[in-house]
Amino acid sequence: MTDAAHARVNPLIELLEADKPIFSVWANYYGVGADYQVAASLQASPHYDFLLYDLEHQPYDLGQLRRFLWDLLDPATLVTGGRGAIKPVIARIPPGGRDSTTWVTKQVLDMGVAGLMLPHVETPEQALGAVAAARYAQHPDARDLHPEGLRGYSPAVPARYWGLDPHDYQARSDIWGLDPLGELLLIFIIESRRGVDNVRAIAEGLTEAGVRCILWAGGGDMSISYGEPPYGGEQPATEAGIEAVLSAGREFGLPVGMNNYRSVEADFARGARAFFTLGPQAIATSPLSDEARRAVGR
User: Which Pfam families does the record associate with it (predicted)?
Assistant: First the structure.
């Protein structure tokens, strides 16, 4: 295949493979809506690499998600920058690791999102089950047969949104790391005592399976799990839990995501590579100072 054929459709994969940080803002969450004005503003923002779309704490409305995705498709951006210049969207789905994610995963991926964020992942089995739900079945002789894919095949809509024919979409929508062409990005939220206790085993299991992904240190629910005040006050157990997620990421070479980060430079040095911002004020402001941008190579 030519270099052009290998060019990434999902720009987040290129950034993460180059060990660069990626920055996101939430949509459909905490005062940021999902209407046309919001989509146009977020697509035009130079400050963020991708958008997180919440379906966990908001109604499970795939019609609204589909409209939001298509509202991002700015004709001028497509002409000057191509399909890859449209900001990727990763959806946080309602079921967590404790639940079956198969049918929700299939429906959300069929909208055309670039990846999924999965809440409350607590064991390697849960993480690998989510991987299986997100990938199509592989050829029986494929080296990457396992985790064996469970996603039903209906590629017309997501292939069109990705700007690919169905065959190419099938190849490129495999999980990052499992296949050389795979570009589907999964984010596993570690946000409970049990998840922290098992985070090293989760990272090891994913790595042994060949999966590349983001581990997100979810400090909010984690603090409640430890009986500490969320987002304020003394949080020694939560801080230790976040460090355990970062440590697992460093050990197994997996990027770690952070929310409510205090210092991009310090968190970057600890292994964080994905940074999440929320609130209406984030749309028009940069998460990075010029000094921080230079420090993290962006």
Answer: HpcH_HpaI (PF03328)
Q: Check if the beta carbon of residue 201 is closer than 8 Å to that of residue 188.
A: no
Q: Write out pLDDT tens, residues 20-77.
A: 999 999 999 999 999 999 999 999 999 999 999 999 999 999 999 999 999 999 999 9
**Residue 160, phi then psi, degrees to nearest 5:** -65, -40
CB-CB neighbours of 165 under 10 Å: 11
Architecture of domain 3-295: Alpha-Beta Barrel (3.20)
Going 133 to 134 to 139 to 144, the CA torsion angle's sign is negative
What's the rounded Cα separation, in Å, for the pair 57 and 29? Answer: 8
pTM: 0.95
Kindly list the distances between the CA atom of residue 213 and the CA atoms of 149, 161, 207, 262, in Å, as whole numbers in the listed order. 17, 22, 9, 23
**d(C-alpha 4, C-alpha 206), whole Å:** 29
Q: What angle do CA 37, 38, 43 make, to 5 degrees?
A: 100
Q: Give CA–CA dist 245/4, Å, rounded.
A: 36
Q: Domain ranges in the chain?
A: 3-295
